[in-house]
Fold each of these.
Amino acid sequence: MQSEADPWEPATLAVVGTGYVGLTTGACLASLGHDVTCADIDAGKIERLRNGEIPIVEAGLDEVVGAAVAAGRLRFVTGAAAGTAAADIVFLCVPTPQDEDGSADLSYIEAAIHEIAPVLKPGAIVVNKSTVPVGSTRVVERALERTDVSVVSNPEFLREGTAVFDFLHPDRVVIGGADETAAKTVARLYAPLDTEILITDAASAETIKYAANGFLAMKISFVNAVAAMCEAVGADVAHVVEGIGSDHRIGRAFLQPGPGWGGSCFPKDSRALVSIAADHGYDFSMMRGVIEVNDQQRVRMIEKISRAAGRDLVGDRPLDGMTVGALGLTFKAGTDDLRESPSLAILDQLERAGAIVTAYDPTTAGELDHVQRDRLGSMRLATSAVAAAADADVVVILTEWQEFSCLDLDAIAATMRGSAIVDTRNILDPAAVRAAGLVYDGVGRS
Ligand code: UDX
């Protein structure tokens, strides 16, 4: 194993799990020069990867995977054990979904540990990249039952849709563990990235991950609450965001109002933060407030959409016969991920109240895979924004896809039954909407 003084050399690595974190991590580490074997329990997925199919929408991932495979530095195998026996360092990038009580389900981690413990080389290092509750590095150490193997935490800060860029241009790399030599060995893997590397203890590294996501979710809930206030006092949230974001202590990022945050991370991690704190005797009431504002934001959007169509939400099916043209289903633009999408939550509630929804999203306009079909149920899908707007009393923009910022508003107005557009992402120019004879409502834009 390399020491700090040695010249930088590529390492032999394994990555367990080939989701957007695992596949991005494996491919990008290979692009840095390391020799990487990516393993997954799903033989079908591995077969598709071997055939050059990338199962997830991630900008630049095709190219990074293709180049690494062509250079002979990246390969795919089925089963964690097959991929890890020769590795000096093994990255765990398996899911840590949410249990009902908000705690993280570590069963995938435990299954991976059980499989790799017998085959790991003496002196190997296991790296926890999955988002795991504080204290999990110790859990992995105990589960491994190997005194000749070290475990470190190396949380990821990858955003879906920009994971490759985020991996290759990190603001920092965080590594935590009791074995400082192991932590420094893992740190050296990232040396070509020329970024700040923070080496700390495992609990701090695990807490950094949750605190980072909690803070980002808080910023978004804060601006959504400010947007509600702007509507009440007649202010423009875009100007307020510019006025506070220009303060370097606040910053402009993650201050874009919307229908609330979603995805596979913020909802899970914000609840886990509250749960982990409570398990250790602290009531993280601020984080509960951040979650509450986010839940309320969806209700506010439903009220906004109903009001725009001249309806109120009284009675058991108050929106009977109301037609909605929905633009955007994914939890944000740039990804095909529908998990915990605010759009789906809002549209589901509208349908439960009697509305008839027709939706268009660039990622669901074609043939749906089984995951998408499962999540979309019986929702009526259109193949274009204008088709989704046909006979709609109200059109609502729920995901900030670029194509929605330059809609043919005259065609939309001509095909609608009503004349209201609710823009939950503030991506349209209200004056252009009005010029097309439509009524505009955004979020925090009086
Ligand atoms: C997030 C974190 O950003 C990333 O660092 C972590 O590793 C994983 O979780 P991700 O969930 O992929 O990444 O997406 P992100 O871009 O953070 O957006 C999360 C949600 O917040 C989305 O629903 C998005 O629409 C919403 N959002 C984001 C806003 O509503 N306003 C903003 O200004 C930014």
Amino acid sequence: MTPSRAGAAALALLLGGIGCRSEDPSRLPGITLRMLVPANERPFWLPLAESFARSYPGVRIDLEEGPVPTDLRESLTTSALLSGDGAFDVVYLDVTWTAKLAAAGWLLPLEDAFGEEERDAFLPQALAAGVFRGRLYRLPFRTDVGLLYYRADLLAAAGIAPPRTFAGLEDAARRLQSPPGRWGFLWQGAQYEGLVCFFLEVLRGHGGSWIDPETLAVGLEEPEAAAALDFLLRSRAPGGISPEGVGAYKEEETRHLFQSGRAVFLRSWPYVWSLSQREGSAVAGKVGVLPVPTLSGAPGAGTLGGWGLAVARSSRHPREALEFLRHATSLESQRAFCEPTGFAPARKDAWRDPALLAANPFLADLERVHASAAPRPVLARYAQASDILQRHLTAALAGLAPPREALAAAARETRIVLGEAP
Ligand code: GLC
């Protein structure tokens, strides 16, 4: 199949399947800007699309529903942009997608439209995730950092101090769990990007590294990587602190379990705090948050996550698309989106906004942790490198490959994909 046919086919699948909308927007008068959003976020994007349409009569935003996992939407976005037929005007992209989409020439540089003062309004780490080879292609919309949630009530009742080390976490989890009703530690172990985010935190906490983005050195054969993988395997082994099912969990499965009181510790993103405090949550008022653990007990660096907005070069309406970026990243829009979802905004003033702080007081504590978040390597071939790591970690977790062999195989394949001699 030619690239453009492949793109058209993927898009037809998307529009005909998960993303089906009743009306055909191209038949409506005026300008339609198309954008792909995860299905679970669409209800929260709608008010932003509506307020934009009020300010720009005649321009409407068509929000296509896509799958929730980042990897799946990255492939759909790639296929659509590859076809070059203007399928999407606005691109909603993860921190890890910028390099690939920018290197392919599919995104418009943004500096002309957004001057220094406007760019300075964003958290520096979140803004940096939109830069590729010195140019800005993505404006941050919301931001993420990996955190360790714990049941403050259970730890306090047992006289256990919130753990800072892996050993402390394992010990506290073991003492306070009563499986299968309540597990010690939940994390995202399914074969997808979330597993990479978590594994990188454990790897950094053991002093290791995955890929050095400057030298392209791969650290997966070092003893630190073996120790990190051993922590995952130990957690899930019989008699361990994590359920076997963790190997199939993504963010929302782990949040639901934690929120219904079925775990002592949870590794996840900032949105969990706000949602776990709401009516109906079994753990409201009982949740504490820590930086991710390390071997030494020094605060760990959570993986930097987050989502931003870009304009597709193939868009027939780049001017209107740029205006939508400006609208969506305004303080008012950040408030409207982050309050109900619990997501952390990407603007500095939003982190100090009284309305947002009243709804989510946790933002005040999060700032320090966010400032030390660790980005994933900036690589145009990030998706391939991540896929390799995901596959080999999964093989090891499923007991299909001895851990060191899995890591060595991942290292070899990664070097090939990055163009290094294996
Ligand atoms: C969150 C993060 C994103 C990460 C994803 C993994 O959405 O914001 O950066 O890639 O989780 O599941």
